[in-house]
Write a structure and sequence with these properties.
The chain has 361 residues and is α+β, with helices and mostly antiparallel strands. Among the domains are: 142 residues, Gyrase A, domain 2 (2-Layer Sandwich), CATH 3.30.1360; 75 residues, Beta Barrel (Elongation Factor Tu (Ef-tu), domain 3), CATH 2.40.30. 20% of the residues lie in helices and 34% in strands. A 6-stranded mixed sheet has the order 10-11-12-9-3-13, with helices on both faces. It has a 6-stranded antiparallel β-barrel with strand order 14-17-16-15-18-19. The protein has a 5-stranded antiparallel sheet with strand order 5-6-7-4-8. The protein is globular, with a radius of gyration of 21 Å.
Length: 361
Amino acid sequence: MKNTPFTSIHIGLGAKMAEFAGYNMPISYTSINEEHHAVRNNAGVFDVSHMGEFILRGDKALDLIQRVTSNDASKLTAGKAQYSCLPNNDGGIVDDLLVYCLEENQIYLLVVNASNIEKDWNWISKHNTENVTMENISERTALLAVQGPNAIKYMQELTEMDITNLKYYTFAKGTFAGVENVLVSATGYTGSGGVEIYFDDIADNAEKIWAEIFRVGAPHGMQPIGLAARDTLRLEKGFCLYGNDINDTTSPLEAGLGWITKFTKDFTNSEALAAQKAAGVTRKLVGFEMVDKGIPRHDYIIVDADNKEIGVVTSGTQAPSLGKAIGMGYVATEMATEGSEIYIKVRDKMLKAVVAKIPFV
C-alpha cells in the first residue's frame, strides 16, 4: 500500500485510515457528519495526492487530447480547465478526467482517477501515434483540495496570486505558502467552492504547505476531512464517481454527461455515440430520494411497483445536509422522469423512493 506525502500527518491526527486505490488514505478524523458540515458551512482540507497527473507536450498534444477525450479541448486557453471523459470503443468510459491548459496548443495537464492511472496512461499512449511527449508526474505531485464557502478567503492570505477572483474551471500558477511552482485551481468536487493546490513533492513542501494552510485556517474552524465526507458531499451535488456511477460499460449520454460529449469533432467511438444520441438512450442515470426508511447501496436492484427490475443503484448514502437517504442509479428511460415512484430492493423488501432532481442540494 502506498503512502501520500501527508500519510504520517493523518495518522498523527488520529484519522481512521484504510486502503483506497492502493493508497493508505484517511477515511475520517471525527465523524462523517461533522466533517461534511464543516465543508458545507466553512472550510475543510482533503488530501487527494493519490490522484494521477500526466503532462502532454508538443505541437500535436492538443490533437491527441482531442482524439481521446469527449469534450472540445480546443476551446481551452492558458489558465483554463475542463471536465471531460475518455470514451472506450464499446460505448463506455475509460475514465473521467480534468484537462488543464498550461500553454495553449503546447502543454496540457491531465488529472485522472487514482485507480485508473496505469489504465489511462496505457490507453492514451496507445493513441499517441504522433510521438507527443508524455510524462507521468503522479508520484511526485502532491495535491490538497481546500473546499468550502470560506476556503478561498483563508487561502488568499498565503499567496499574492489573485485566487479570490478565480472563475470556476480556471487556475493560476505561482508561489503559495512560500513554495514556488504551485498550481491553484477552482474546479471543485464538493459543490461548496474552494481551490485545489498542486505542487511538487520535494524537500519539505508538503509539511510546509499543510502547516501554513492550518495556521491561517484552523483559528476559523477549518478541519482536515476524510474520503467518507468527500463521498457524501459529491453525492449531494450529483457528481459522478468513476467505478460507481460511470465505468467501462456506461455511456456518457446515459450518465447525463452529454454536455461534455461534443460531436463537433471526431473522437474515440464518436460515431456510435452520435447514433445513440439520435436514437435516444434506453436507460438514464437519475437521482432519487428514499420515501421508506433505508439506505440505498451500490448494486442494489431497482424495481417498479410490480417488482419488475428496471435498474440498479450506483451510489447511495444518508445525506447529512438533507437528513434523508438519497442515491443515484440507472433506470429505464420511461421511469427517469422526476417524481416517478421506484423501489429499491433491500434483501426481500421493496423500499419506496422517488426520482428527484439533481443536484439534491
